[in-house]
Amino acid sequence: MSKNERGWVLIDALIGVVIVAIALTALAMAYRQATVVTVSANNQATAVLVAQQIAETIKQKDAATYSGFLAGLPATVTVPPNPTVFSIAAVEQPPDADIHASMRDYLRPVKVTVTWTEAGGTYSVGVISYYYFKEL
Questions:
Q1: What does the alpha-carbon distance between residue 85 and residue 71 come to, in Å, rounded to a whole number?
Q2: Percent of the chain having pLDDT more than 90?
Q3: Most confident of 30-34, 75-79, 82-86
Q4: d(C-alpha 131, C-alpha 136), whole Å
Q5: How far apart are the first and last CA of the chain?
Q6: Which of 16, 47, 106, 135 lies at a C-alpha separation of 20 to 30 Å from 62?
C-alpha cells in the first residue's frame, strides 16, 4: 500500500457508515408513520363500532313512546385494550323531506356522533339511523 492509499480505507468506511445510518433513519421513520396510521385507523374503526352500538341501543329501547328515547346514553366510552376515550352525542335530526308525508310523523332520524382525540387532532364519526314510533 502506498502512502497515498492509506487514508482512503478510512474514508470508504466512514462513507459506508453514513449511508447505512441514513438508510436506517429512513426505515425508522417509515415504521413510525406506519404505526401512527395503524393507530388512527384502529381508532376510526372503533368509533364506527361504538356509534353503531349506540344506535342499536336506542333501537332496543321501548319505541312505543317518543318522550325520552335519547335519555340514559353514556357520555363517554373506552373500549379495551384501546386507551382512547370516545365522546358520544346523539341528536335528533329534522325529518327528511324525502320521507312520505304519512310516515314523516313517525320516522325520526337520529345522528350519533362519536368524537375522539389522538396525536393528529380531534376527529369524529357520525351514524344516522331512523326510528319508528307508534305514537308521538
A1: 21
A2: 38
A3: 30-34
A4: 12
A5: 98
A6: 47
Q: Which conformational region is residue 53 in: left (phi greater than 0), alpha (psi within -120 to 50 degrees), or beta?
A: alpha
List pLDDT tens digits, range 12-66.
899 999 999 999 999 999 999 999 899 899 999 999 999 998 888 887 776 555 5
Q: Which amino acid is at 122?
A: T
CA-nearest of 51, 49, 41, 52 to 120 is 41
The length of the chain is 136
Q: Do 51 and 39 form a contact (C-beta atoms < 8 A)?
A: no
Residue 14 grid cell: 466512514
Give the three cell numbers for residue 105: 310523523
Structural contact between residues 112 and 54, judged by C-beta atoms closer than 8 angstroms: yes
Q: Spell out the domain ranges in the chain.
A: 6-132
Q: How far apart are CA 78 and CA 87, in angstroms?
A: 9
